[in-house]
Write a structure and sequence with these properties.
1 helix, about 100 residues, mainly alpha
Length: about 100
């Protein structure tokens, strides 16, 4: 009786071992591979996101510089316009223009 029980336990252990091995090969290994590939994809996306954030920050800095230059140019244009009006007024009021 003990020998029969031991034989049954041995057979069940062997069958469970085979089932576990098959489960590992058919289920666990493909899942592990898929998880590794997914991790690589996520890492690549994170790197891409970091690069794009850096580019966006650099573009914001450049836009701020261009905006400052445009404001400065508008101020200079306004100053030149005021000077031109002043010169035109002086020329219009000049007593020498009839000569």
């Amino acid at each position: 009786m003990v020998e029969t029980v031991m034989a049954a336990i041995t057979i069940f252990s062997f069958l469970f071992g085979i089932a576990g091995f098959v489960f590992k090969i058919w289920i666990i290994s493909p899942l592990s591979t898929a998880i590794e590939n997914l991790q690589k994809t996520v890492d690549a996306l994170l790197n891409t996101i970091k690069e794009e954030q850096t580019k966006a920050t650099n573009m914001q800095i450049e836009i701020a510089k261009v905006d400052q230059r445009a404001r400065s140019a508008h101020n200079r244009i306004d100053e030149v316009g005021e000077r031109l009006l002043l010169i035109e007024n002086k020329c219009n009021n000049c007593a020498c223009k009839d000569k």
